C-alpha cells in the first residue's frame, strides 16, 4: 500500500537551502515555516520510532471546550496559516513529508489549540494497487486538501479521539479451534 500525495513530489532541498528559504520570509511567516519544518521532522522521527498507532494515541484528546465550538467561532485564518506553513515546509523538507506527515502535524496543532479536528485515512484501488491518503477535517470540512481529491478515497474509519477504530475497517482474526491463528 502506498500513500498518495496531494501534490507531485518536488525535488528535496538541502537542509541549509530550506532554512535559508525560511529565514527569507517575513516575521510571522518565517516563524510558522520554521515551526512547521521542525514539526514535520519530529512527526517523521516519531512514525519511524513508535509507529502510526502510538503517534496517533499521543495526540491531545478533544477538549471539553470544543463541544461548544462551531465553524463560525474559530479562527479560520489561523487554521489556513497552519495549512500553508505545513505545506510550504513539506515541499522544501529534507524528509519526504507526505500527506500523513502533513496531516498528523496539522491534527496535533489543531488539537493543541483545543479544536476538534479529526485525522482521516482513506484508500482506493488504482491499477490493482492500494493507494492511501491522509487528510484533516474540522467540523466535517476538509481543511488541508481539495474535497474533490479526498472524495476519490474511501475512509477506512474515523480516527475518533486518540485511536484508530480498525475493527470497522479490518475484520478481527478469530482463533482456530486448535488455538493457532
Topology:
Blueprint: E1 2-3, H1 15-23, H2 27-57, H3 76-91, H4 99-112, E2 118-126, E3 129-138, E4 141-142, H5 147-150, E5 154-158
Parallel strand pairs: 1-3
Antiparallel strand pairs: 2-3, 2-5, 3-4
Helix pairs in contact: 2-3, 2-4, 3-4
Describe the model:
The model is unreliable at 5-10 and 160-181 (pLDDT under 50). The longest helix is centred in the N-terminal third of the chain and has 31 residues, at 27-57. The protein has 5 helices and 5 strands; from the N terminus they run βααααβββαβ. The relative contact order is 0.17. The two termini are 24 Å apart. Strands 1, 2, 3, 4 and 5 form a 5-stranded mixed β-sheet that branches. By secondary structure, it is of the alpha+beta class. The chain has one domain (2-168). α2 (27-57) packs across α4. Helices cover 41% and strands 15% of the residues.
Describe the structure in brief.
It is built from five helices and five strands, in the order βααααβββαβ. By secondary structure, the chain is of the alpha+beta class.
Amino acid at each position: 500500500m502506498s500513500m498518495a500525495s496531494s501534490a507531485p513530489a518536488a525535488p528535496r532541498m538541502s537542509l541549509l537551502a530550506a532554512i535559508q528559504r525560511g529565514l527569507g520570509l517575513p516575521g510571522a511567516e518565517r516563524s510558522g515555516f520554521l515551526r512547521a519544518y521542525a514539526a514535520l521532522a519530529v512527526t517523521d522521527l516519531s512514525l519511524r520510532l513508535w509507529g502510526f498507532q502510538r503517534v496517533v494515541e499521543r495526540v491531545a484528546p478533544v477538549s471539553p471546550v470544543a463541544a461548544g465550538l462551531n465553524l463560525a467561532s474559530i479562527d479560520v485564518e489561523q487554521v489556513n496559516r497552519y495549512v500553508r506553513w505545513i505545506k510550504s515546509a513539506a515541499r522544501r523538507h529534507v524528509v519526504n513529508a507526505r500527506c500523513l506527515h502533513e496531516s498528523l502535524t496539522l491534527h496535533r496543532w489543531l488539537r493543541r489549540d483545543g479544536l476538534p479536528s479529526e485525522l482521516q485515512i482513506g484508500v482506493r484501488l488504482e491499477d490493482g494497487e492500494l493507494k492511501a491518503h491522509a487528510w484533516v477535517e474540522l467540523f466535517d470540512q476538509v481543511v488541508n486538501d481539495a474535497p474533490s481529491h479526498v472524495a476519490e478515497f474511501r475512509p477506512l474509519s474515523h480516527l475518533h479521539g486518540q485511536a484508530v477504530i480498525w475493527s470497522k475497517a479490518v475484520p478481527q482474526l478469530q482463533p482456530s479451534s486448535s488455538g493457532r491463528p
